[in-house]
Amino acid sequence: MAVTKELLQMDLYALLGIEEKAADKEVKKAYRQKALSCHPDKNPDNPRAAELFHQLSQALEVLTDAAARAAYDKVRKAKKQAAERTQKLDERRKKVKLDLEARERQAQAQGSEEEEDSRSTRTLEQEIERLREEGSRQLQEQQRLIREQIRQEHDQRLRGKAENTDDRGTPKLKLKWKCKMEDESKGGYSKDVLLQLLQKYGEVLNLVLSSKKAGMAVVEFATVKAAELAFQNEVGLASNPLKISWLEGQPQGMAGPSYPGLSKGSVLSERDYESLVMMRMRQAAERQQLTARMQQEDQEGQPT
């Protein structure tokens, strides 16, 4: 029986990280803690996690059933004693075992022990088969609790995401730049370029380029914080700067054009304008270097 052979090779107490005398309550608690981290629903692409979850389930079934646990403990104890005897054998005793009478006596003793071990193993096999046929109520209950906890964690993440989007809904920004309808380069701003510029501030849920008016797009962020950072810091390409304005979800008390450090109504002096242009050029150069480095890393990572 494949399951039984697998069980005989494992230390179920060590697998769950509990003592041999652990009560059922401790067994269930240890199972929930370990099984939750390797549940297949949380690790869909990790076959090792699914295998470990299956082993933990077997351990729970055996150790929460009195008869099956007693049979397992008996087999485990016999294996432990046999290992201790083997460990104590030294070269001197191995030579003594060459004596015919000693070997005969040991053979008789081992025959008795092997028979007892065989009976214990058969008992454990029978108990595991019984658990399989009856279905483990303990396992079903613990797995129900784990599914419930996973669902609660999922709901909490959704609630947290909803809170971050503010009561006014998901934040949206309007982007404008100079572009003629016949310009195939779209003024230097394709959807991929815009995403690359904006995603560093946070998760972008959607980005739509206007099909009726050149040089305009709408971006939807997952959080107000991400939209706020993009509004305050993004200037776009030095050769064709972006004009960013709020469309939806603007935080209270926040207004003005998307010039970092300048409030609405500020008048740009020649020196200020020069500094602003230089800052944009530096940012554009940094972005171009980053893009080139990322493309180089992508090419190096591709199989030849």
UniProtKB/TrEMBL annotation:
Subcellular location: Cytoplasm; Nucleus
Pfam families xrefs: DnaJ (PF00226), RRM_1 (PF00076)
InterPro entries for this protein: DnaJ_domain, DNAJC17_RRM, J_dom_sf, Nucleotide-bd_a/b_plait_sf, Pre-mRNA-splicing_ERAD, RBD_domain_sf, RRM_dom
GO molecular function, one term: RNA binding
GO BP, one annotated term: spliceosomal complex disassembly
Feature: compositional bias, Basic and acidic residues: 79-106
Major subcellular location class: cytoplasm
Residue ranges of every copy of the J domain listed in the record: 11-76
Keywords: Chaperone, Cytoplasm, Nucleus
Gene Ontology annotations for the cellular component aspect, listed alphabetically: cytoplasm; spliceosomal complex
SUPFAM superfamilies per the UniProt record, alphabetical: Chaperone J-domain, RNA-binding domain, RBD
Residue ranges of the region described as Disordered: 79-124
Entry function: May negatively affect PAX8-induced thyroglobulin/TG transcription.
Protein name per the record: DnaJ homolog subfamily C member 17
Organism: Microcebus murinus (Gray mouse lemur)
